[in-house]
Design goal:
Layout (H helix, E strand, L loop, with lengths): L8 H18 L23 H7 L7 E5 L7 H6 L5 E6 L2 H10 L9 E5 L12 E7 L8 H11 E11 L9 H8 L4 E9 L2 E8 L2
Parallel strand pairs: 1-2, 1-4, 2-3, 4-5
Antiparallel strand pairs: 5-7, 6-7
């Protein structure tokens, strides 16, 4: 008869870590970096391709753009490629995600530098008037205080700059169109336009502070 091994403190710690990973993967909240491969599923193009998002952001070659919650960088290379004389800053809560993102960026003289920044979307470490565009894709509902996040976004945007919020079906943290509009107005974001259908949509706002 095989004697059952008594779990050590390290065994229990690893088990708790795996359970936390599973809760994060299948439940609400920030997608753990261990599950980043799910965010690179090519089937995402059927909902919103990087090229479609790029068109919705109305990018100019010299725009300064802030991407919040890029994950492993599903949209990042395409957006960066649209800014040959501009700048893209990608900010994520998880340092490990930024490492995955860096490996996805092509090493080419034609690819502009992308600045990677670890931080909290509620407390953006940038000065006012730092960006022409700020965008979030399936991220806002994961932020503990989405209203505070939108205030932070409009603070770092130039007056009249574009705040773009995209939600996608299947995301347990997705906010409705009415919820986003309700949060955006007090943050100084004026509704501008809508793209998409049903639960797959992009709402664009102008920073009007």
């Amino acid at each position: 008869m095989t004697r059952r091994k008594t779990p050590t403190p390290r065994d229990r710690q690893e088990r708790e870590g795996h359970l936390a990973w599973l809760r994060g993967f299948f439940g609400r909240g920030v997608c753990p970096y261990q599950a980043a491969f799910t965010l690179l599923n090519p089937l995402r193009r059927l909902i919103l391709s990087p090229g479609q998002l790029m068109e919705r952001l109305h990018l100019e070659p010299d725009h300064r753009v802030l991407e919040l919650g890029p994950g492993p960088g599903y949209f990042t290379p395409t957006i960066a490629g649209a800014l040959p004389v501009g700048r893209l800053v990608s900010l994520d809560l998880q340092y490990e995600m930024l490492g995955l993102l860096r490996r996805r960026l092509p090493r080419s003289k034609r690819m502009p530098d992308v600045a990677l920044c670890q931080g909290d979307a509620r407390h953006l470490p940038f000065a006012p008037d730092s960006f022409d565009v700020v965008y979030l894709v399936a991220v806002l509902g994961e932020v503990p205080d989405p209203g505070q996040c939108l205030h932070a976004c409009t603070r770092v945007l130039r007056r009249g700059g574009l705040l773009s919020i995209t939600e996608q079906p299947g995301d347990p943290d997705a906010l409705s169109e009415s919820e986003i509009k309700r949060l955006a107005e007090p943050a100084g974001a004026r509704f501008r336009e809508r793209y998409g259908t049903g639960k797959s949509f992009t709402l664009n706002f102008s920073a009007d502070y």
